[in-house]
Design brief:
The complex is a heterodimer of chains A (114) and B (114). Chain A is mainly beta. Helices cover 0% and strands 51% of the residues of chain A. In chain A, the strands form three sheets. In chain A, strands 2, 5, 6, 10, 11 and 12 form a six-stranded mixed β-sheet that branches. A four-stranded antiparallel β-sheet of chain A has the order 3-9-8-7, with no helix packed on it. Chain A is globular. Chain B has 114 residues and is mainly beta. Chain B is 0% helix and 55% strand. Chain B is built from no helices and eleven strands. In chain B, strands 2, 4, 5, 6, 9, 10 and 11 form a seven-stranded mixed β-sheet that branches. A four-stranded antiparallel β-sheet of chain B has the order 1-3-8-7, with no helix packed on it. Classes of the chains: A mainly beta (114), B mainly beta (114). At the A-B interface, strand 6 and strand 10 of A face strand 5, strand 9 and strand 10 of B.
Chain lengths: 114, 114
């Protein structure tokens, strides 16, 4: 079975500062990795995903994540955050076989203040 | 146009009642999902349907019964509601059921059982 650990339940940061949200996973087989974002009172939206190829993936709004197989990590980073990035961020994995069943971490709340 | 919609948005009810939540997607997707997000924001898949057929059924009490009348709709009926059923229920859809697909989430239904 797969599991995802997001050690930081909340990350406070000032606007324009860099941020890293940590995600570690456990799996006996290879996995696909996802970051979803949940803005207040909304459903989740895909931020980015790693399926294969380059281990560094980017989103359209400046976030990036790097797949590190040896450390079983998929940390999310942004060099300069905005107030509007305040949201809950969920890391998830799926196994590349059969039907998709996303296994989510417990989420990290990013709080950006002025 | 709302891609994945859920009704109702809020549901407050008494223990022992029966209630239904409806979900509709206008994305033309083949696969739909139900998730439960508890008070600690932990998100867990409950069911998944592909072309109206049940493909994922996690260890959910049989008081929960999903129903997919067509590819665009996935409803969730809950019998004999219990306090522990209080949560946010999210519907999602994806183009196909494959493991690399992006899932599109609805805004959620906040269920409170008193």
């Amino acid at each position: 079975a797969q599991s995802v650990t997001q050690l930081d339940s909340q990350v406070p940061v000032f606007e324009e500062a860099p941020v890293e949200l940590r995600c570690n996973y456990s799996s006996s087989v290879s996995v696909y990795l996802f970051w979803y974002v949940q803005y207040p009172n909304q459903g989740l939206q895909l931020l980015l995903k790693y399926l294969s190829g380059s281990t560094l993936v980017e989103s359209i709004n400046g976030f990036e994540a790097e797949f590190n197989k040896s450390q079983t990590s998929f940390h999310l980073r942004k060099p300069s955050v905005h107030i509007s990035d305040t949201a809950e961020y969920f890391c998830a994995v799926s196994v590349p076989r059969g039907f998709q069943k996303l296994v989510f971490g417990t989420g990290t709340r990013l709080l950006v203040s002025p | 146009d709302t891609a994945v919609s859920q009704t109702p948005k809020y549901l407050v009810t008494q223990m022992g009642n029966d209630k239904s939540i409806k979900c509709e997607q206008n994305l033309g997707h083949d696969t739909m999902y139900w998730y439960k997000q508890d008070s600690k924001k932990f998100l867990k898949i409950m069911f998944s349907y592909n072309n109206k057929e049940l493909i994922i059924n996690e260890t959910v009490p049989n008081r929960f019964s999903p129903k997919s009348p067509d590819k665009a709709h996935l409803n969730l009926h809950i019998n004999s509601l219990e306090l522990g059923d209080s949560a946010v229920y999210f519907c999602a859809s994806s183009q196909e059921a494959r493991y690399q697909e992006t899932q599109y989430f609805g805004p959620g239904t906040r269920l409170l059982v008193l």
